[in-house]
Structure formats: structure tokens, C-alpha cells
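RETRY 2/3 - previous attempt timed out on the joint model. Re-submitting the same 1576-residue input unchanged.
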Amino acid sequence: MTHASRPTLGVGMVGYAFMGRAHSQAWRNTAAFFDLPCTPAMVALAGRSRDQVSAAAERLGWASAETDWRELIRRDDVHVVDICTPGDTHAEIAIAALDAGKHVLCEKPLANTVAEATAMAEAAGRAAANGVRAMVGFNYRRVPALALARGLVLDGRLGTIRHVRAQYLQDWIVDPDFPLVWRLEADKAGSGALGDIGAHIIDAAQYVTGDRLIGVSALLETFIKERPIAQASAGLDATVDGDDRRGRVTVDDAALFAGRMSGGALASFEATRFATGRKNVLRLEINGSAGSLAFDLESMNELSFYDHTEDPRTAGFRRILVTEPSHPYAGAWWPPGHVLGYEHTFTHEVKDFVEAIASGTDPEPSFADGLQVQRVISAVTHSAAHHGAWTAVE
Amino acid sequence: MTHASRPTLGVGMVGYAFMGRAHSQAWRNTAAFFDLPCTPAMVALAGRSRDQVSAAAERLGWASAETDWRELIRRDDVHVVDICTPGDTHAEIAIAALDAGKHVLCEKPLANTVAEATAMAEAAGRAAANGVRAMVGFNYRRVPALALARGLVLDGRLGTIRHVRAQYLQDWIVDPDFPLVWRLEADKAGSGALGDIGAHIIDAAQYVTGDRLIGVSALLETFIKERPIAQASAGLDATVDGDDRRGRVTVDDAALFAGRMSGGALASFEATRFATGRKNVLRLEINGSAGSLAFDLESMNELSFYDHTEDPRTAGFRRILVTEPSHPYAGAWWPPGHVLGYEHTFTHEVKDFVEAIASGTDPEPSFADGLQVQRVISAVTHSAAHHGAWTAVE
Amino acid sequence: MTHASRPTLGVGMVGYAFMGRAHSQAWRNTAAFFDLPCTPAMVALAGRSRDQVSAAAERLGWASAETDWRELIRRDDVHVVDICTPGDTHAEIAIAALDAGKHVLCEKPLANTVAEATAMAEAAGRAAANGVRAMVGFNYRRVPALALARGLVLDGRLGTIRHVRAQYLQDWIVDPDFPLVWRLEADKAGSGALGDIGAHIIDAAQYVTGDRLIGVSALLETFIKERPIAQASAGLDATVDGDDRRGRVTVDDAALFAGRMSGGALASFEATRFATGRKNVLRLEINGSAGSLAFDLESMNELSFYDHTEDPRTAGFRRILVTEPSHPYAGAWWPPGHVLGYEHTFTHEVKDFVEAIASGTDPEPSFADGLQVQRVISAVTHSAAHHGAWTAVE
Amino acid sequence: MTHASRPTLGVGMVGYAFMGRAHSQAWRNTAAFFDLPCTPAMVALAGRSRDQVSAAAERLGWASAETDWRELIRRDDVHVVDICTPGDTHAEIAIAALDAGKHVLCEKPLANTVAEATAMAEAAGRAAANGVRAMVGFNYRRVPALALARGLVLDGRLGTIRHVRAQYLQDWIVDPDFPLVWRLEADKAGSGALGDIGAHIIDAAQYVTGDRLIGVSALLETFIKERPIAQASAGLDATVDGDDRRGRVTVDDAALFAGRMSGGALASFEATRFATGRKNVLRLEINGSAGSLAFDLESMNELSFYDHTEDPRTAGFRRILVTEPSHPYAGAWWPPGHVLGYEHTFTHEVKDFVEAIASGTDPEPSFADGLQVQRVISAVTHSAAHHGAWTAVE
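RETRY 2/3 succeeded.
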């Protein structure tokens, strides 16, 4: 079958900032590396500003631009809606798109509240009955090393899991004069480090272990209470207005929580934007009765694995370079040892999403998974507001 | 001044197992590497079994043996009593020795309860008034890399400290059939991972930051509830009786707690004996507004330091190999790059203790420091028993 | 200026195997990440098999296909010819393209012999006089970490360079039954590890230091003299014919040489395909009177830098994560800490090539640079054939 | 058997600088950690200055002092002579001691010339016939990780060895004003980096592989030709006279050579004192058809091992922490994960030497081994003097 004879899958995307650029890259490249059952067409990009969205569409490879996401959803040539906007808009767009029969890929966190996430999961449930698919963008599940980690757990190589140690450490707001961007405002972002990067480690830990967090005891902290008003921002960078106005930071700078997993493991989580010198450290370490795993996103092509069944004389943590043909996703790329970068977590996400659509199966992580992460976040917030009191995840 | 013209400091030691062997090494070697103001003489070793203590004395370099520690304390040629026994005996021996005018070096944890530790700190206070010194053996303060870390904090190189991340990970009881050694019995050991290795990271974190833990929220877990009765044990190794008798494990296998430091930092602590593949990993990571530090005891000659004041173009965590003449303790040893091992944390401890005795100053960590660690342990235990409820350290 | 208003640069590519896939990715994506002065259009792909080249064109994003590279060169809509074929064909295609007024990007090694490379450099010289540009694809110059390394040397941060240590270690032919692919045949590949991966470290070492190799003393070795005939190959992978025919390996498996650099440094080079477990390790270490650098391609987002002017108390090799906005190329991508992969060395190469074309400047590395590397390879071959006799690089 | 009932082995040592301090430590401690068949007694220390040798003896634990090594050899209570002086004195002392029936432990390099080393090996041969033992102090054979490496090679875990990569990198004379210490004078030290640290990697590579170097092609370099006259030196440190006198450096600063091993492997060696930032990096990497090993002395408790027989999905270099009871020497020390330092390479050396004496077997490395290393050094020097011409090791 040539590409030409394959059905086309029209994609419309909402938002074109950090996540929009990353998703565009994925839509632009997936078919060149993976044998997809249908061929994605980058039909339209939606944004509020006509000039900016048009320029972005041209630059990022979208065939047209829309200034209202409702128009995007209405288009017949759009079969998939990819949502890359801040969290406060996810629910409205996703529910509308699903109800209109569009498959939806929605960036994480799924929503800013459990209520929104519940409505979205319900919409996804209704849509699934009609063959419409929904997926939440916990892209790190598609890091080959973490997909391999999941595989090793499934193969029983870790035995009974005793400990999970998860950290997501960044440092981009250490400077007290870094401005008050939308990610620091509760009404847009829902929470701070907790929902932005904490959500990633919650999902990653649950995905790799196959267990769920059943309860938590948490602390939240906002080290810098007020910041200059932001003028413009892009990615994690921003500029400040000339004047001296400062606004209140309404989200957490750091979140710290201990928990118990459904399988009996103890778990510790930390998400912070104040870990000076740690730019994008997502560490995950898992200890089981038969083996252990360790991972760091800054070295994302490596998985560290300890096999406790080996002779102690030669046992040791192995650095598996996850670039072999037998490793998840890696066979589609380069010869062994030729590493991949951050953006291909999205390329892999798109590949899996497109395959799920074509095969009529529900992709993972589902909106229900996104909702469950939201419930963990809610339990963390509740515990922190009650002096660390143990709080069950509902 | 030749060694011969220096006063002799008679030392008596109680206990000759793991810690006794380590301390003996220190007493045997310190004067060969450091210019001590007085010369330690290894006068006598005390233990209960005549045969065993005599053999140990001969092997470890002690001039004589005693079968009752009370006799050791009574000897005029013993000026220092070094206590290397399990925690349940510390208070009685230490208080008796101090009251008898002997300087005391006591292994950590200082005691098994706050009550005992309080009595010991009071005895140390009384003794200090008479020029008698007491020190608790948190030997990791004498790892050159951690002493350097303390120095960098004191120099302001970290700025305001935001995060402390401390883990002590071992795996020696992962096997459910590992026997019930004294370290797994509450009446002898006080607690499990918490008091044994958790005490080390509590002290290390407080020492390096100069801050105190003011409150905690904790979880404790005993994964394996019953174990075979131990026949004999040495160090962290043991053998099992032939029969099938099992006894109840009365201490924690793992301790996990979050806390706040007196300076405003968030802190996370984890101590476990179930981190498969982690043999003796003591990790300490500290993030401040001006820089960060990271350390791992398995690579104990290295300190990782990030200087946030550097140009981002060349900033990065540096691996400082702590073997330079200008590094703490290192000048007494070998040329740069020639690394030291675990046992010299004790060598350095003895050096500092002997110098404090000679100069008439109170050594650190003091019994009061040991008591404060005991209070943290007590708060952890209390919080864990109350579902993670926030518990102030008194 | 919108993209639409920018001139279009028509690109034709020859070859679509490993390098062709990598270059296609670059042409497909560069304009989405970098503000290019003109917009590349992927006009046509050339290959010998109609079916295969058409399928590849469709998959990789080329608008049309040609079965004769001469036709490609003749097309008016092709302004750039990108040569991704084996080394024995480079000279003919490149010279024809340059003489036809097409800018040429040619994969490394520039050619299989000094004679061919000389003719190519001469053609590039003629073309340059007419504003036509030529560049050889030593893509690792565009690893941000190596570009930063070059910058640090230029800034004087290394002082006088004393040592260069360069290794390129792979292991894909360790198995004696791995088939005799074209990379193991001298008539197609010119040489083995030497020209394939040795060329990379020769160029990288000279690029970063700014010095040239002036003489070498070398050993070459072919460990496995005969191998099964290959049926098909892709990338570094291949399958074997059913029968038992074996053919002679006519290239080196490993090359080892010592040399002197024009600035006085001693240099050691090793290129091998028999370093079991080393998948794609390109290590470069440089020691100077004022500092040192170390790099490993398997951790390509990191540069290790030692600043000898620092206080020894805090000096140490720093791991610079080369993802800051101020780092070469990095600002166009993701926030700090979000790493890049192998393929973007080509993205950066295309960016620099397009900018050179637009600005009318000669890009680097030039064909003259490629010729000089070929001269080093020739000197190595000569020395190895004469028992390691010192051989000047002409 | 108690220690007391074991025979005593009287030890006399010559020299008390860097190596003398290290050996003293070994003699002082070996019996406390290992069950030795006889008990070493530190009988006497010899040196030229009465005051200095007496002070050193007291400090280092020697019972008496001699100002003439000939007196030391004459003493009946001295059964072992340990030679820790510069290389130009080794032959005379060692031959005299052996001929007097004393067992000899001689620091490396065995001698400064092949002629001296030959005479020493002959003396050792004569002595062996009388039950007198001789050993050369290539102490790194007693790094547990390198002893384990040797074991893995012997077990066939590496298969056919293809590559040896050995580097010994230091930086203590990078500063052109570092003084002209004895290690920089050919008449005392024989050679520079080559004989001092190059000898170590020659021995280590041959020991671990079990193969011999059969030929070499070499470069030597002295970057700094003249240096200030040294006033006093200790270890690798020194001070300079007030005046401006400079003397000629008569040894190499760096040695670089390629070679072939008797088993067919290619080998590269580099020894330098100009690797800025590398304090004591002894790297050894070995690639075989079935596996690979890597080691770095700055992380001396770790051995990196790649097992090529593993499934590629989980294969990777393992970091073996060489502190398990089943690892060479490690069982005598601390629990797993408690690391050892540089000085215990000597402790292990003494243990093996004493056991060989007691059991009447010839210890390794023998004087013949030391002579063979000297022959390699001689071949390197010859090749370097002949522009890298291939030179067989005789």
C-alpha cells in the first residue's frame, strides 16, 4: 500500500505556543518515520489573533488558519482536534469537539479541576460509543526508555514493587523578578508545579508500575508570593512590563507528597520550579523485590536497570541505551546509539493516536486516566490545606 | 615537638563488631596522618565474652581486654570511652563514663528514646562544666565532600535554601528470609531504617544547611512482618538457625517523611533497606537561590556543585573531586585524585575529637545535637502513627 | 517578512537510505524552527529504482522523483543538490552539479581518494567564483555542544592545547557473520572505520581546536577477514543470503593513530566497529593549559568543561547541559533541559547552509576542509602500510 | 590459632615519602582486616637523615630507625625489606637484600633501565631457589575492581579481546613554574610520565587481559623544557627556591603509544601529567567479542561491564560496585556499598605478599614481570626516538 492509497486524517490544532510547536513537529514528521495506517493532513490551525495564527500556520506547516476554535470543529475536513491551549480552556473545547464527532488529543493536565475533568471523561465515554477517540497528552509515556520500563515491569523483572521515587525538578522561576506568566496564575493554570510537572510524574509513576496512588500526605509552598506583571511570554520564557506593578502568585512553586500505591509500595513525589541548576530533571526510580529501575529525562535515551536475580559478583545497575531495534519506537529511527530528543515523545504519541483511531481501539492514556491524575492532584491540594493529613485519592 | 613529648590519651572502647572495627581503625591510624596534640593509646577493649574480646583486642590493636565496661571506666589509664554497642546500652554507659570524668565518643543514634537522649545530654552538660567532652558519632560529617558542602553553605554560595532532598537507600534485607538480627528488634535498635540510616540523613541535612527540621509528616512501613530467628550476625550479614522459627519484625523497613526546615526550605527524607541494588546510597541534594549541591556516599570523594551566578553559557553541575590540599581533611592524605574510603570518616572523627579534648572546646556533633535528632525521629514516629499528621519537632 | 514573501530554494536530493532519511528530515523541518532567509522546497528525490524512489519521495516529503541524478541537476527548479550516496559516487555528482551552477551539500567523507577530493575542491573553487556554494556534511560540527566547545576554545578558555583524545567507537560488526555490506567494501566505501567514523573525529578534533593534524603514526586492522555476502541492507543493518558464500572484507575494522597538531598538541585517534557495547560513542577530550573539555555523542546534549583558573576548592568538570538560549542553535528549540537528538545535527547543517547561500558567503566545512580530512586519511593509510612510520599530512 | 601463636614477620622499610607513608599504612593495618598466616612486625625504617627518619618512624609506627639501608638488611629481626625509594636506588638495595636472604617488596617501576631490571630479576631468580620471595609493587592489581576484571577475563566473559584503551591522566605539572622535582630528572626517575604512571597502565592492561604487548609505535613530548629548581618536595607537591635558577627537564611530560597485544588486540596507551583537571584518572577499557570492561581509578570501587551475550533489549554497561563479599578482597572490609580508598591497594598487596611468603609460593607481579614492563618502556623510548617506528618488545 502506498501512502497515496491510504486514507487521509485531517487534523486541526488549537494553540501554537510551546505545545503547539511540539505537536506540529509531530504531525509533520510521524508519517516519514512510521508506517501509519492513514496519512495525517495538517488542515488548519486555530488561534485568536488573525495575524499571529496565520504566521504560525505558515511556519509550522498548517494549510490554513482559523480564529475561532468552534469554526475548526465545524470543518468537515477536520477529523482530529488537537488541543494545545492552557488548561482552563480544555474542557469546553474537548467536549465540543467530541460531541461533534471529532477525535481529540488534549494536552495535559486534562483540566484544572476534577469537575471539568469528570465532564470531559464523560464526554469521552459518550464519544467512544460512537467510535470517536480521546487521548490525553502525557507524552512521557512515549519516551522509549519509559515504555521499556513499563515493559520490564509487565515482564515481572521488578517483582513486587516496594518503592517509587519521582521528582520533576526545574528552575525557571528561581529569580524573584521572573514575571507573572499564565503558568503562575491559578485561574488559567489550575495549579503551579503540581499540575504542570507534578502531573507528569504522577502519570509516569502509575504508568510504569501499573499501580495507582491510593492516598497522599502533602506539602505545597509558594516561595515568591508576588512577581512583576508579564508583558509577553513564550515557552517558559517571558518579558516584563516597564512599570513596577507586581501581582500575586496564586499557584504553588513546589509540591512535595508521600503516598501509597495500590500494590503496596511507598511513593515519594516532588515537583518544583526552584531546583536551581536542574533544568528539566524528571527522575523516576522504582525498587522491587526482583529488580530496580532508574530514569532521568535529561538523559532520556537511557534506562538504568538492576537485576536482583544476577550473581552479586556481576550485578549492577546497567545503563541501557534505549536505541535498539527491539526497543519501543526506536526501530523506526536511526541505528543503535543515535539518540532521540524531547520532541519525539510527541511524534510517538501521534503515531499511537493515529493507529488507535485507525484500528478503532481506545488510546491510552484515556481521559479517564487524565481524570484520575486530576483526582490525585485534588487529594494533594486537600492534604496540603490540612497540614499534610492523609487524604485518600477517590 | 616530637610525638614522644606529646601527652598520651588513653582510650577504652566498648564493642567490637562493625562499628568497633571501624573505630579501631581510626584510633590506630589517626596519629600517622594528622599532627595530633596528644597521642592516642589504645588501652583496652571491653566486651562480654572473655575469649572473643581478647581475640578482638589482639586483632584490632588494643593492648588489653575487659569483660565489663564498668571496669573499663574505672581504669586510670583510660581517659576516653568510645561506645560502639547497640543503641539500648548507650545511655547507661555514656552517663556512667561522663560522670566518672571520661571523655565520651558515642555511636549514633545517641539513644533509642528521647528520654534516654535527654539524660545523656544532661550528663554531657554536667561533664562539660568539668572539662569533660562528649561527642556523638555522626561520622558522615567527616566525609570531606560533606564538610566542603557545609563550607560552601557557610560561604553563602547557595543563597537562601529552598529544597533539601535526602535519601539513604540500602537493600540488605530485601530477601524475606534474611534473619531477624538485632537491628530489626525495637528493644535493641529503637527503630529500623529510621534510626539506623534515617538518623544519618537527618543529621547530614541539618549539618550542611545549618538549619533544623521544625516539623514533619511521615509514613513508616514494615514490608516483611516476620523473619527467621538469627543465629549469629556480623556487620550487616547474618546466618539463620536450622529450625523454622520466625519472629516478629518490630521496626520499620522504610521511613518516608516530608518536612520544613527552620530556614524555610521544604525537605524530603527517605530511609529504606528495600531499595534493591542500592547498597549504601546516601544522597543529599540541596537547592538554594544562588546554587545547588548534590552528593552520593557511593561516590563519596565527589561533590556536585552548581553555581547559579555563572553565565548560563558555561554553568553546570561541577564534579568537585574532594581530594585537594585545600579541601577538609584531604591535605593529610594523598596527592589530588587519590581517593579515600568509608573508614576514614572515623579517622577524621577521631582527629576532631582528640583536638577538641586537647584544646578544651566542645566537639560537634554534641550530645545535644544527638538529642535533637532523636526528637526528629520521635516526631516522625508520632506522625506516622497518626496517618501523616503534621508533627512539630519539639 | 512572511515566509510567503521569502524566495524559495529548490532542493534536489540524491540517495534516500540512512543519510537520505536524515537529510530529508532536516529539509522538512528547518524552516519551522529557524527564521530562514529563504524557504527550502523539497522539489525532487533521485534514485535508480523508479518504484523505490517514488515510494521514498512520498514518504519523506519530496514532491517528485527522478531515476537519474543527471536529470535532477538539469531541472531549473532545483537550486541545491544534496548528495547522500556512497562515497564512490560523490565526485562525479558533485562536480557535475557545481559545474551546472547548483549549490552542493555533500555527505562525508568528501570522496574515497585524495585525487577525487582534489578535483571536487577545485570544482568548488570554480563554482565559488560564480556565487555557487559547496559544503561537506560533517554534521557533528552542528551538535550544539561541539559548537559551544569551539566557542570556548576561540574565547581562550582552554589556553594552549596540549592533548587531543578522540575516539569513535561502534560495535555493529562484532558478529563474524554480519554480512559484507557496502561499507565493508573498499571500492564503494574507500576505507572502513577510518573513512566512515574516523573522518568524523578528525574533522571534529580539528574544528574544535582550530588546529590541523600535521603528521601521524598509524595502525589499521581487519579482525574478520571474510564475511557472508549481503542480500539487502538499510542503515547499519543488513540481511544475509541463504547460501554460504563469503567475500573478502577489503576495509579496516579499526584504525588507531597518534599524531601531532599544528599548535603543538599530541593527539590520539581511534575509530573502530569492534568496541562491544559502544553503540555510537564519539568521545572528544581536549586538555589545555587553562582548561579542558570532554564530550560523548551518546550524551550529545552535554559538554564537560574544566576551568583551570578556578579556585581548586570548587574546581571540577562541569556538565553543561547545552540547551540554554545562549547556546548555539538551542534557542530555536525548546526550553532549557529539553534535549535534542541526533537528527538535528542535520537540521542545523541545513540552516547554516541555507543562510550561507542567501548571504553569499562560503559555508564551512568547505570542500577544501573535506579534502584536508582526506589527506589525513591518506597519511594514516600510508603510515599503517609502513609499520607505523611517521607520515606527514601533506 | 590466635595472632599471638602465629610467627612474626619482621619488616624493614627504606624510604618514607609518599610511597613510604602508603606502605606503612598497609603494614600497620593488614593484620586487623585479614587473617594472615604470620604477623607483620614493623621493625625498622631506614633513611639518610637521623632526625627525619626517627620522626617518620615514630609517626608511621616503626619501632626503630636506621640511617643506612645496609644496616637494615643486616638486622636479624628484619625478614622483609620494603623498598620505597626513587627508582635509581632500587637495583642496589633489592639485590643486596635478596642476596642477604630477605624477602623484597620493591616499588614500581622495578628499575630505571632494562639492565638494572635484568640484574634484579636474576637476583630474584637466585633468591627464589632459596625460598626467598620478591615482588614488584604494581599496587593497582590489588584494586578490587581490577582484580575482578582479571577474573571476568579468565572466566571467558570477554571472549577474544579486540581492543585495549589505557590512559593515565594527571595534571600536577601543568603550571610551567612547578619546580624541577626528582620525578622530572632522568637520572633519578628514569623517565617521566612514561615510567611513573605509564608503567602502571602497561602492567594493568597486561594483567587484566593476560596478554603481553609485543610491539609499539610511540611519541614522547616534553611541553615545558625548563623549570625552577625545587627546594623541597613531598608527594607530588613541592616548593621553589627564592632565586630564579631554572634547570632542564630531562624526562617526558607525556607518552603516547599504540601497540599490539600477544592475543591480537590493538592497544592504545597514554600517560600524561598535562591533562588539566584530570587528577588521577587511570582509565582502562577492554573490548572483547563477548563483552567489554571499563574502569576509572577516580571511581575505583566501580567496574563497568557489558555482557554481549545478553538480550539487546536489556543489555548495557553495568556499574558493578565492587564491595560485595564475593568480590576480591572486599569481604574483609565493610558491608556492601561502603567504599575503599587508594591506600588499601597497598593493604591488599601486603596481604598477598605475606601469604606468598608463608605459603612458599612466588608472589605476583614478580621481578620478571617488572622487567617485562621495563622492556616495554624501553621499546617505547626507542620508537619515540625513531619517529614512531614500530618497535618490537624484546
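Chain B touches chain D through 46 residues (CB under 8 Å). Closing ticket.
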